[in-house]
Design a protein that fits this description.
By secondary structure, the protein is of the alpha+beta class. It has three helices and five strands.
């Protein structure tokens, strides 16, 4: 009887401890910026670093990342800024790290004298979370 009480207390303590240490959602917000360039044009477009609401990385990859590059490509073509552009998306959960990557890439393009670099402000273009099907 003495062992049953001790065993019962141990089981209850184990259940309580495991209930409080259950895995919590430790996801972080995702930041993103885009670059659009064309082999037939001398203008390169950069978006600002933006926060993607309610988006979480899955296995270190951005879900629907092709959709975000398509959004940028569609915006550029619809506003007749450039045709046949190639769009690249850069993303990270660390905003400072992504901003450093942005500055590094931006400065790389600015150094090329034949290229004109333009920024797309947040009020003109914003990445939107794709609709779930």
């Amino acid at each position: 009887m003495k062992y049953i009480k001790g065993f019962s207390v141990l089981v209850v303590a184990l259940v309580l401890c495991s209930a409080f240490t259950m895995k919590k959602d430790k996801s972080k917000p995702v930041y993103v910026f885009g670059v659009a360039a064309s082999f037939t044009d001398t203008v390169v477009y950069f978006t600002d670093v933006q926060l993607l609401d309610s988006v979480r990385l899955k296995d270190s990859f951005l879900p629907d990342r092709s959709s975000y590059s398509n959004q940028l490509e569609n915006y550029i073509e619809e506003n007749q800024l450039q045709q046949n552009s190639t769009c690249m998306i850069y993303f990270s959960e660390n905003q400072n790290k992504l901003e450093k990557e942005f500055v590094k890439l931006y400065n790389k393009y600015v150094k090329v004298e034949k290229l004109k670099v333009e920024k797309l402000a947040k009020d003109k273009f914003r990445f939107m979370k794709p609709k779930e099907e």
